[in-house]
Specification:
elongated, mainly beta, about 350 residues, 1 helix, Porin, 2 domains, about 10% helix, single chain, 12-stranded antiparallel barrel
């Protein structure tokens, strides 16, 4: 009897092991099939194991089990190895075919040719098709700011904004649209819009040339239509998420049609400055966009439009932004203020 009782637990254990054996085998097979982690050795001797997800602008991004997503400065890497193949693009545009990445003593080893390249020359890992000269990358942002008040006064305000860009390795198309429509007690108190289209062709290095055509209207500033067109030269000073800065300077033909005042046309100087930074972190973005037009016939006449903004992501691709728009026109017609300020909080969608 005692022997039977002792045999029962042993039989039960054998039965449990038999039932669990397929699951254990499957886990062992999955572990064997899983590729080894990527390995990064830093100059200070530290080793990071994980999965390299991107390399761009001198930063290597790696997902780890112990610390989540990390960013490592490329110039701090001594050696690196990946399990999966990747396409490497160097700063001079040269592309290394898909292969596991091997870096030794800050030298990239091309497994297909045996050549070595300085790690400092690595620009992008797994570049986008447009960076390889295939097609365009399309990005954009559309947002709105709306206010409705009911009570002692009825007020309706609508601001809208669209920015979109097509970017390739050789050139860039840009379209920007802004507008405002305001009513108070069924009486329109603001109605203005502006649109600009630009084409840029990239030269060697940070320089580019381009041309733009722009138009705007503001009924309450007596401006029926102002448009200008002209060429410019631009330079990209910085092109990272931490600091983006580019500026353009050119000439333009300007034509202004007023509702009441006398129409005019003149040669002008035209410039733009665009700045953005994620310095505050959290995927937020500080930005400044500035446009200027200078009347070369009447040099005291100058137009300056400057937007200061802070944008931050919401759910999915939704984005919120607080903006201040300052518009200055030293040649504004009589009874129209030279300086106009607009404060807005926008909600939009980016892609």
């Amino acid at each position: 009897m005692i022997g039977k009782i002792q045999a029962a637990p042993a039989a039960a254990v054998m039965l449990i092991l038999f039932i669990l054996s397929p699951f254990v085998t499957a886990q062992e097979e999955d572990a064997a099939a899983a590729p080894p982690p990527d390995r990064i050795v830093l100059k200070n001797g530290s080793t990071i194991l994980g999965t390299i997800t991107a390399t761009r602008d001198g930063i290597v991004s790696v997902d780890t089990d112990f610390a989540g997503s990390l960013e490592v400065a490329q110039d701090q890497i001594l050696a690196l190895e990946t399990a999966e193949p990747a396409v490497l693009q160097l700063a001079d545009g040269k592309v290394l075919d898909a292969q596991p990445i091997v870096i030794k003593d800050q030298q990239i080893v091309d497994g297909s040719t045996g050549q070595s390249f300085a790690l400092a020359d690595l620009a992008v890992v797994n570049p986008e098709p447009y960076e390889l000269g295939i097609g365009y990358q399309w990005s954009g942002l559309v947002n709105f700011s709306m206010v409705m008040e009911r009570g002692n006064s009825d007020t309706d305000e609508l601001d809208y904004k669209l920015e979109t860009q097509w970017l390739s390795d050789d050139d860039r198309f840009t379209v920007r649209l802004n507008g405002e429509i305001d009513e108070a007690n069924d009486t329109e108190i603001a109605d203005n819009w502006s649109i600009i289209g630009k084409y840029d062709y990239f030269l060697d290095g940070p320089w580019y040339v381009g041309g733009n055509v722009a138009a705007e209207s503001d009924d309450f500033a007596d401006l029926d239509l102002r448009y200008y067109v002209g060429p410019y030269v631009g330079r990209n000073f910085f092109d990272t998420e931490l600091l983006f800065l580019e500026a353009e300077l050119g000439l333009a033909y300007v034509n202004e049609d007023f509702i009441v005042a006398e129409d005019q046309e003149y040669p002008g100087a035209n410039w733009e400055v665009h700045f953005s930074s994620n310095y505050l972190g959290g995927d937020s973005r500080l930005y400044v966009d500035h446009i200027g037009i200078w009347n070369l016939d009447e040099t005291s006449d100058i137009i300056l439009n400057t937007t200061f903004g802070l944008a931050f992501p919401l759910l999915f691709n939704l984005e919120a932004a607080a903006e201040v728009l300052i518009e200055y026109d030293s040649g504004a017609v009589d009874n129209v203020e030279d300086l106009d300020e607009t404060y807005s909080f926008r909600i939009g969608y980016s892609w």
